Input
Amino acid sequence: MPIIKNPKIPLLHKVIITAISSLLVLLIIWPSEKEPPLPVTPSVLDETENTSSLPQQSQDTQPKEGDTQDDEEKKEITYKGKLNSLNWRLFKIKSGENLAILFDRVGISPTTLHNLILTDEHTKDLASLKIGDEIQLGFDGSGKLSQLIQPISASKTLIVTRENNKFESKIENKKVESQLNFATATITSNFWNAGIKAELNANQVLSLGTIFGWDIDFALDLRKGDSFSVLYEESLVDGVVISKGHILAATVTSQGETFTAVRTKSGQYYDENGRAMRKAFLRSPVNFRYVSSNFNPKRLHPVTGKIKAHKGTDYVAPVGTPIWAAGDGVVSESGFNQYNGNYVFIRHNKTYVTKYLHLTKRFVKTNERVKQGDKIGTLGGTGRVTGPHLHYEFLVNGVHKNPRTVQLPQSQSLSGETKRNFIALAKQRLEKLKEFNAPLAKVATEKK
Ligand SMILES: [Zn+2]
Output
């Protein structure tokens, strides 16, 4: 039996994840305050002329009265081990700025900049600091740059020190620890909001949608009162969470039915009985993130004026939303007509056919082989429609079925020792999930 791989994430999906993550990162690192005002002391001398003076311990390095020290600068005081006689200032790279511009602003000579950057491999990266990056500069009593500290990441810090008129650098690594954490939510508006409110990050919410995407149509099936619980790992440095990681176990309860998934050590997801979460068909060919209304899907009726059973599911989402192949198969037709607009039909095997109508663009040709999750086109409003949407049909032996409730082929299951090991792991993780959940459940009962 082939090992079930993680669901394939289409490119746009990745782009969105990246975009959202970058946006979050930007929001986190965006300078929230104005740059600290230039201190009255020390005056920064041109170092090309005075490179022999040693750092002095003198009263001069103490901030004088009237010296403004805002919070950003005070933060430096807590920097362990680096607190010495130097006068420290903290800077954030501003828009349109680089280290050269920053140094110029501070009054450090181009020669010093040159020597600093060319110190070694580590210091080269100083040339490509980005907006929001922090840099701390320590000046000696004569105002000469003696030390530079630049946090590369939450766990890595570059420290450049002047030693005998030359710079030396080292990277300080902090220990990254990991721990389990937990999130749970009951849905009140939609799945995305519930996930973010439960303090999952964007990637985790999207992962949750992917892990359960073969069982639940997150775009249309979730209702108010549905809920989920998630056990995940997170990384810490100095006791502070620096990133949230993989979902280790999760349950989603939708309209009375509970689905469970547990991650194997190698990163695949199975249910508590060792059955793969991945199945032959996705419940929805559209990422839930795009679909406009989760609870009240607007049914767009054909504009023929005739009363006719609506034999498909309509997903209302912005024009250009990527449409995925629900399963592996061969494109039996990729074409255009006045009713369907741009359409793609996929034959998955003798039994199953799926149809995708009203697309703006088609990315596949007739007779082309497609894999589950492949982007076959983008959502549009071509053909006879009252507004842009995807009309999706699921046919079993030529008969239309509701793709969200139809019984689908069983997924593959683990067996033998692999299965026994997995069941043991799953038990542990689900037990942990329960443990986390217990105090909350108690609170809920007491409230009643
Ligand atoms: Zn329709």
